[in-house]
Design a protein that fits this description.
By secondary structure, the protein is mostly helical. Helix content is 76%, strand content 2%.
Length: 355
């Protein structure tokens, strides 16, 4: 290939990268506006959204927009950022196309934590709301328990990795083993649970953004945004890891520290999302692969673009979940999980050549 052809190909790649980023930003703005207008109250339009955010207009519309739909839309964006950037980071530092927080057992640990709170800590009382929705009697205990068990899983993975060095293979195998262990514990709890406790556990495990509040959004943003900025700032180190541990060490990268800190922060972001909204599977796996296919594997562009596209992906999924069988609202975790199986099959067929 001549120099002119190389320059032309590079220019085309850069143009495609920035075009995709611009389209993602535009899609995020449009989906955010449209998402606030959609719901059981169909009388709300874009002008009502603008007035409602400013505290003007009919009181009931202001309350619906500011206290129900706006925090849900923003939570979808922030949760999508947290899950997707964690997946992109773990795929990079583990050098494994199937690497994500969920394949490392964190979702199983969260589900076990929720079951532990429902059965052992007595958070499983159900009550019927005016809309006939089933609510967990004490969601705060469930959230805290799920979060703590997520951190236990992360700590165990890191502790096991230090026994033989923090290699990518050790971390993946440790995550698979711990995920199986927590899944077995969850199955045992479900077996011994009564009807009310079992219903509570199943209800929590549905990934549902309808639980979002301003307080949860504030905590989620305080965790996810700084972690995402840290990953963007250290993108060069992750590029070095993509070339192998020995190459990264020769370039001055502390491989063990970079991998360990990345694992801790990615797990923290994911566990915060899961502890608030339940298990929203495969976002951390799907989004980085889509972005990588479009703009390439340069972490300096992959990480920030994955953040934005993750927000678009989860917001779009939640919007479809709220409208596809309206007036019923599906948990968004159902839609995202349906995307996971085809992608896993694709990766298995494509093999290592994809990575």
């Amino acid at each position: 290939m001549s120099e002119a052809e190389v320059l032309r190909a590079y220019s085309e790649h850069v143009r495609r990268r920035w075009t995709f980023l611009l389209l993602v930003i535009v899609a995020l703005i449009i989906l955010g506006a449209v998402g606030i207008t959609l719901g059981s109250a169909k009388e709300i339009g874009i002008p009502d959204v603008v007035r409602g955010i400013l505290g003007q207009g009919e009181e009931w519309k202001v309350q619906v927009i500011r206290n129900i739909r706006l925090p849900r839309v923003l939570s979808a964006i922030v949760a999508g950022i947290g899950l997707s950037v964690s997946g992109a980071l773990m795929q990079s530092i583990l050098r494994n196309p199937l690497g994500s927080p969920f394949t490392l057992g964190i979702s199983s640990a969260a589900a076990f934590g929720a079951a532990f709170a429902v059965i052992v800590l007595g958070a499983g009382t159900l009550q019927s709301a005016s809309s006939d929705a089933v609510l967990i009697g004490n969601p705060y205990i469930v959230t805290i328990s799920a979060f703590l068990w997520c951190l236990v899983c992360t700590g165990a993975i890191l502790a096991l990795s230090r026994l033989r060095g923090a290699s990518a293979e050790t971390l993946v195998l440790a995550g698979i083993a711990l995920g199986s262990l927590f899944a077995s514990g969850l199955t045992a709890m479900e077996y011994f649970a009564d009807d009310v406790e079992l219903a509570s556990i199943i209800f929590w495990t549905f990934g549902d953004l309808g639980r979002s509040t301003w307080r949860q959004l504030a905590v989620l943003t305080a965790v996810v945004v700084p972690i995402s900025l840290y990953f963007v700032r250290n993108a060069w180190n992750y590029n070095a890891l993509d070339s192998g541990d020995e190459t990264a060490k020769s370039l001055g990268v502390d491989v063990r520290r970079t991998r360990t800190v990345g694992m801790i922060l990615a797990s923290l972001a994911t566990s915060t999302v899961v502890s608030f909204f339940g298990i929203i599977g495969f976002v951390g796996l799907v989004v980085p692969h889509i972005v990588r296919r479009v703009i390439g594997g340069n972490e300096m562009y992959l990480i920030p673009t994955s953040c934005l596209f993750g927000g678009v992906f989860l917001l779009a999924s939640d919007t479809v979940a709220r409208t596809v069988v309206s007036p019923l609202v599906l948990p968004v975790g159902i839609l995202t999980s349906f995307l996971g199986a085809p992608l896993f099959i694709y990766l298995l067929v494509k093999g290592r050549s994809y990575w």
